[in-house]
Amino acid sequence: MTDLPYRPAAGVMLLNAEGQVFVAQRIDTTLEAWQMPQGGLDPGEDARTGALRELEEETGIPASLVEVIATTKEELFYDLPADLAGRLWKGKWKGQRQSWFLCRFLGADADVNLETAHPEFRAWKWAEPATLPDMIVPFKRRLYEDVLKAFADHLA
Question: For labeling, which of 59, 85, 123, 132 is most exposed (least CB within 10 Å)?
Fold first, then answer.
């Protein structure tokens, strides 16, 4: 597994007017974990375009309702646990290398629609940024800590 590459990906930390972060629960797991919108990049797609595409595909929120505030200076990484590495993404990747974008939500809660063409989430809520590492699956905890550090100057 160590010879496998990292999947190119992007994520969005979406803030509401109160400085809370959008998180959602995946449909494909019974875990009580919450995550921010994120996903793989299409071939030839730049990270910003991919991040905003993933946001819309997963939450129904179009790019016109977000303002990009900041981006991570470098890619952030996470490794899949051994039991998932051989199953997820057809066993082609050992984890992800992600560019993250901090965005301000310009819409209203009613603009969130998880009933997208290919639903990925079953529930969503706004959460305090500091609580993110405790909400995510354990193998992504360090990644979320790194995202928080990267955007610390922009968080209340």
Answer: 123
Burial track 66-89 (b if 16+ CB lie within 10 A, e otherwise): beeeebbeeebebbbeeeebeeeb
How far apart CA 112 and CA 56 sit, in angstroms, is: 9
**SS3 category, 69:** strand
Q: How many CB atoms lie within 10 A of CB 111?
A: 13
- Per residue in 100-156, pLDDT tens? 999 999 999 999 999 999 999 999 999 999 999 999 999 999 999 999 999 999 997
Q: Sketch out the chain's domains with CATH numbers.
A: 6-154 (3.90.79.10)
| Residue 150 token pair | 């990267």
Q: How many helices (H) and strands (E) does the chain have?
A: 4, 7
Residue 34 contacts residue 127 (beta carbons within 8 Å): yes
Could you tell me the two tokens for 87?
Answer: 């199953």
d(CA 35, CA 8): 18
